[in-house]
Amino acid sequence: MRKKINRRFMGIAISAIIVITFIMTAVFYVQLKKQIFSDLEIVANLLIDEENYESPVRNLRITLIDTDGTVLFDSVADAVTMENHLNRPEVKEAMQHGCGKGIRRSDTLSESVFYYATRLENGQVLRVGKETNNVFSVLVPVFTIIIGVVILLSAICLVISHYLTTDILRPIGEMAGDMDHISEIDIYPELVPFAQKIRSQHEEILSSANIRQEFAANVTHELKTPLAAISGYAELMEAGLVNEKDIKHFSGEIRKSAARLLTLINDIIKLSQLDSGNEKEVLEVVNLAEIAEESVEMLSLGASKNQVEVTYEGVKNADIKIGKELAQELVYNLIENAIRYNKQGGKVFVRVRKEDCGVTFEVEDTGIGIPLEHQSRIFERFYRVDKSRSKALGGTGLGLAIVKHICTLTDGKLTLDSEIDRGTKIMITWENEAG
Ligand code: ADP
After folding, report:
1. Which 3 state secondary structure label does DSSP give 53?
2. Count of CB atoms within 10 A of residue 206's CB?
3. 8-state DSSP, 279
4. Is 359 in contact with 352 (CB distance < 8 Å)?
5. What residue's CA is closest to ligand 1, atom 8?
6. Is 367 in the pocket of ligand 1 (CB under 6 A)?
7. Is 417 in the pocket of ligand 1 (CB under 6 A)?
8. Ligand 1 atom 3, closest CA
9. Alpha carbons 288 and 308: distance in angstroms, whole number
10. Could you read off the pLDDT of 209-255 as tens digits, one per residue?
11. Closest ligand 1 atom number to CA of residue 398
């Protein structure tokens, strides 16, 4: 693009210079021709009557000056009344060097008189003066031509620039009009990175719009199920179709569905808060080790009912900038999963390590593991390997999406290591975080 613009500007400039040179040469040639003819006319008139200086030749003034400056003869004025001419520059010069020149403004102001003086053999000076329009009035007719040329050239340049600019901008317009087929357009190499950036942003926007749309559809679906259950049970009870002994069971189902709704709504709120990105500014430094240990204590009671043993192995202090709420959310979700997808008599190890390069949080279980083909997707919203198992155990399908979101927000690096029937290990490392 730079080359193209350069070439075109050079083209315009060079053509303008060439055109101006030609026109100016023509104008000055005409002017010079006029001048030469007028000089020739004077010479011819002089030759007709060599002796008679007094015969007035148009615009020509002849003066003869004596060695002491006295004017002996003048073809225009009376020599006797004329003042001493010794100090006139052209006369002075002629007396000293043999010839002299001078230009003076005449009385009429609009005219200039050009003098040429030459020293005769007897020491007297013969001066010839020619009255001409002054330099500006000589140039006036030329000026009109120059102005005409300038206007014409400007108009031509305007048209050419308009055409060139449109031509230069055309690929950019085409690119903006059709982002999907940039490679097929003859685009400037300088714009390729822009085009790629815009296209990738375009795709990102589209995919995030898709994700949102899909999320909204999933949310609706997930909320509908427990709500339908609640209203179904309530309708039956209202109609008096439920025996006294079943009422307890039905109320229990209503309570469970309501609880499920609450957890879902809480998770959705959490995710949308994380999405809005406001959390980052308020993140305070917390002791992750303490939070992890407390969580282990709280969750091991429930875990022991399923014969799952949860142990904390790790340091006592490990500060990272994550904020208490997010830290709890992260730790809880991972430990809950490790308990939920475990086997009877299984184990869960929670570790916090402090290393030179940063802090590592790790949850390892001896549970059912995650099949390889699902491993890349379990961090997606509402993605579950076994939907019915997850639901039966109170999962929302949002836990790992929240975990991943928190990691992105706090610059934590997340790694997953899992094998079917042997267990899962999820590790998050915060490199050189505040500590
Ligand atoms: P859920 O609420 O269903 O647990 P998550 O987002 O927390 O949702 O997890 C998504 C899916 O990943 C789970 O449904 C489960 O299939 C799988 N998963 C998560 N953690 C583990 C684990 N520790 N062991 C085996 N599978 C797991």
Report:
1. coil
2. 10
3. G
4. yes
5. 397
6. yes
7. no
8. 397
9. 23
10. 998 899 899 999 999 999 999 999 999 999 998 898 899 999 999 99
11. 6
